[in-house]
Amino acid sequence: MNNFAEHWEEAGIKAREIALQLVWNQWSSLGSMARSTSFKNKNRVIDPESLVLTSVALQKEERRLTEVLAWWAHDGTGLLSVQRMKKMASKTRSNGKDLFSEYAQLAALCGHRSWNNYAEHENQPELLHNHQKDTRLELRGPENLLLRLRATFGVGAKADIMSFLVSTPQFSATVPEISKYLDFSNKAVRDALKDMNVAGLVRESSGRPASYSTNQLAWVDLMRSKSDNKTDHPEWALWSAIFPFLTSAMEICTAAVSSSLNSFLVNSYARDLIETYQYAFEFHQIELPDLAEYPGREFSAAFLQSINSLASWAK
């Protein structure tokens, strides 16, 4: 096998490994019987819509995820935003609509009527036969900040924005930045921040464009349970970019190894993928190679290097 094929094969295996380890770790943090020991997600705030869509996408790679998804559809669907997940699915490389519809079917079977209109396939009750028993949803810990705020204040832009402002390392952000990172419209973010500013929950800078921040330490202290002597500070992670990058990378690498696409298209799709999600690499300070230095078939080496950099961050 030549270096071109070897690079794509290695990148695909690595992307699959990262994605599976991350989703198993996050399900474990939510109280699932799933256990992950390779990666540690202790501080990184879980994005439930990204986690669910990615888990649906990875079922063919790991059938045990079907059991976990059935459990979450029963116990956790009420903490999901239908519209946010729908928007995320629309941005997924190839089959996002099908992934969204498949989970909507599970949610509808569990009695969540707001999902009925999105379940396009015939109901199949056997999908829930593997529902985990005696498993309790667990929302403690800094990684569950977003879900804890949703459970307390309701599902919507305000809970998500507060979670982001509490856990982002930049401490403050503008409306376009928040909109991009959270997958809400500028209007939804602006309206939410206006109310939150009136209530004194966020601070608006005097500059233009205005940026917004909150008292991070106060919120971390508020969310600390009485039994905790110390709560680690939550850290925002752009899972809505990281997860689709990984699943799309798997798809591209499979096409490259199987030769179902010619090398020109493979390199083009891979380059577009990195450029699309480059903002996430920059947000997390994940090193990317200089793409201009890898023309043509040589880009396979740059893509593998990008996957390896992401793996280092994930661990």
Q: Which parts are unreliable, with pLDDT below 50 for 5 consecutive residues or more? A: none
Q: Give the H and E element order.
A: HHHHHHHEHHEEHHHHH
* Number of separate strands: 3
CATH superfamily of the domain at 142-222: Winged helix-like DNA-binding domain superfamily/Winged helix DNA-binding domain
Q: In percent, how helical is the residue content?
A: 55-70%
Distance between the termini: 29 Å
Mean pLDDT: 87
Return Rg in Å.
20 Å
Specify the structural class: mainly alpha
Strand arrangement within the widest β-sheet reads 1-3-2
Short description:
By secondary structure, this protein is mainly alpha-helical. It contains 14 helices and three strands.
Quick tags:
315 residues; 14 helices; Arc Repressor Mutant, subunit A; 3 strands; 3-stranded antiparallel β-sheet; mainly alpha
